[in-house]
Amino acid sequence: MDKTSEKRISIIGAGRVGTTFAAAILNSNYPVLKLAAISSKSEKSLEKAKKILGGKATEVVFLNNNTECAKHADFIFISTPDDIIEEVASEIAGTDPSGIKGKLFIHFSGSKSLDVFDKIIKTGGYGASMHPIKPFA
Q1: Coil, strand or helix at 48
Q2: Distance between CA 91 and CA 101 in Å, rounded?
Q3: Number of folded domains in the chain?
Q4: How would residue 80 be classed by pLDDT, with cut points 50, 70 and 90?
């Protein structure tokens, strides 16, 4: 398979949703999707995610910096609590707007609109949302 067709994914937020989504990507048989990076401000969450993902995550970069995490991917999934999605998007847009153009940012909130990505969209990125059907207790 040609590497140019590979789509790199980063996940911001290493809680239940982010880690479960990371595991699903790592366990999928879809060869063009590659989990590139996971970030969390919480070192405890990152360590837990590393433990859960185990040996399948040897090529995944684990970071405490959301902007750096976004640089590793074509698709950036924000799986933080709903009330900080806009803050995370604004942080990324304000820190390195040149690294946003053409990238797709997706949040998992059922209560937030795409307005949380206004700054991302103004700097050339794209926004989408996807609400999981499954509860993550």
Answers
A1: helix
A2: 15
A3: 1
A4: very high
Number of other residues whose CB lies within 10 A of the CB of residue 44: 9
Helix axes 16-27, 43-53, angle to 10 degrees: 30
Q: Per the domain annotation, does 123 fall within a domain?
A: no
What is d(CA 65, CA 62) in angstroms, rounded to the nearest whole number? 9
pTM for this structure? 0.90
Alpha carbons 49 and 16: distance in angstroms, whole number: 9
In a domain, 31, yes or no: yes
Residue 13 lies in a domain: yes
CATH code at position 91? 3.40.50.720
Task: Indicate whether 43 belongs to any domain.
Answer: yes
**Residue 130 CB: number of other CB atoms within 10 A?**
11
pLDDT of residue 1: 42
